[in-house]
Design a protein that fits this description.
Elements lengths: L3 H13 L15 H6 L3 H5 L2 H5 L39 H8 L5 H18 L14 H19 L1 H8 L16 E2 L5 E2 L11 H4 L2 E4 L3 H13 L5 H8 L3 E4 L1 H11 L1 H6 L13 H4 L7 E12 L8 E9 L3 E6 L4 H15 L4 E4 L13 H8 L1 H13 L3 E4 L9 H17 L7 H16 L45 H20 L21 E4 L11 E9 L5 E8 L2 E6 L3 E3 L21
Parallel strand pairs: 3-4, 5-8, 8-9
Antiparallel strand pairs: 1-2, 5-6, 6-7, 10-11, 10-14, 11-12, 12-13
Helix pairs in contact: 6-7, 10-12, 11-12, 18-19
Length: 603
Amino acid sequence: MWTTYVANRVAKIQTITEKGHWRHVPGVDNPADLISRGIPPAEIVENRFWWQGPTWLELRSEFWPKAPTSFGEEGEEEKRRMVVASSASPYSEFNDQYIARFASYTDMIRRTAYWLRLMKLLRKPREERKDGSFLSTAELRQAENVLVRRVQNEVFGREWKAIINKTVLPSNSPLRWYNPLLSKDGIMRVGGRLNKSQEAEESKHPIPLPARHSFTRLMLKHYHERLLHAGSQLMLAVVRLRFLPLGGRSVTRQIVHECLKCYRSKPTAIQQFMGDLPASRVTVARPFSRTGVDFFGPVYIRPALRRPTVKAYVALFICKEVHLELVTDLSTGRFLQALRRFVSRRGECSDIYSDNGINFVGARNKLQEFFKLLKDPTHREILSKECSEQGIQWHFNPPSAPHFGGLWEAAVRSAKKHLLKVVGENPVSAEDFTTLLVQVEGCLNSRPLTPMSEDPEDLEPLTPSHFLVGTSLQAIPEPNLEDIPLNRLDKYQLMQRKLQDFWRRWRREYLCQLQARTKRWKPPVPVEVGKLVVIQNDNVPPMRWRMGRIQSLHPGNDNVVRVVTVKTSSGMLTRPVEKLCFLPLPDCNEEPKTQIASSNIET
């Protein structure tokens, strides 16, 4: 293929020597190749080939070399580039590149208006070029019409030709229901059926636009911000006064969803895949061997007659069964006394689970004292020493993750409901309140774990109290007595047999009900390091929620990430993914990833 330089020189030589006769000279007989390929000056002085040319020039022309019919080593056939025109619209590439330069609809219209003004001035003589300093409304409307025409020519080219030629629109045209027409300004408009209405002409004959075109999306974003971040319904209603975006409902919803300010005002929390139940919930064990603890309050008691009321709190210990303790104040001593009373009456525990201290800071900071108590290093040291001496291991759930302790959160709600119905806001004495707590405890332990079976001999459902009656607080594992006839068992063995019957019913009637995931059953949400998130905080409005970037992941035993470490402007925070909201900006999630942190957080 000839280069541009060679092709231009050959064309010029052919033009100058138009009447001459050209013959082919093989490359080996071309004296010019000596210079182009290089030769020492001493050799060229006596080189006959250079000074006289090839020997066949001395012969008659009929003996000269013939022009080759095929080009091999002797020469190269001339090759010319072939330009293939694409079938795409001539406006497509221009529109995409031009519109992509602008971040706002207003900026695009104003810049286009300045270009049109410049083009108009360049067509005038120099002495007549006078320009105003500000753009007029007519110039802005003209610029908008120019862009609309180019978009319509790009997308509705077939409809445009059909209207000009006065033929029927294609059967698959999206405008076949609207009877389009051309207005005086050269823009395609909707004909429709509203000609006799008293609405404005722009409302009766709006401008059809493809909803997913970059021009339309920029225009819809402009109306969204102009209407103070209105919803899709209001935005679409106002836009249709001038334009008719085809299929615009889904695009307007998408624009509202992608708007950062709209998302910050009402963020959507992540709903992560529900994890498996912990072993303490699905294995046979003595009651309260693995216990969850929670506090609620304050409640008000009257120490004596004509004495002012004082605040108190209720400690709730729960396994399947419930144990309630009254705590007169939130100090380390009172906290340990409640724990010792619980262990003495219910037996020693191997593991205790509780929320992190930050979970107790509610909207009104009612448990601010307990929060300070849990953050006190002296309290933690005394509590750890006391638990280690009794062989108890204390587990804290992640901060701001009350759903990790859903079992005791539900028990707290039930206990507060009973207390509110009975006591209300009337203060009672400590003895009366303790008696009431024991009665509420009995009600909660009598709640059915399973519905009543269809067996006519079974007259009562399985309840937590079945596991508390008839067994020692220091019970050790007993041999299985289910297969031994009742008449061969002594009194002690018969009691153990009844207890094992309760556990058998627990496996068959209650445990199978925990199999299904009634919520958060969708596949796990992928959580990646580097994503920007909004951190939920129930004590402040959504627009004041802090933003952060995920720094490390803490996957559970099933490799599903439910706890992450987030880097914020004030430091690192550990939060469950249910308290995070992904920002709908793909370009905000690009940052080098760090290593996944190992975690022993209980999920």
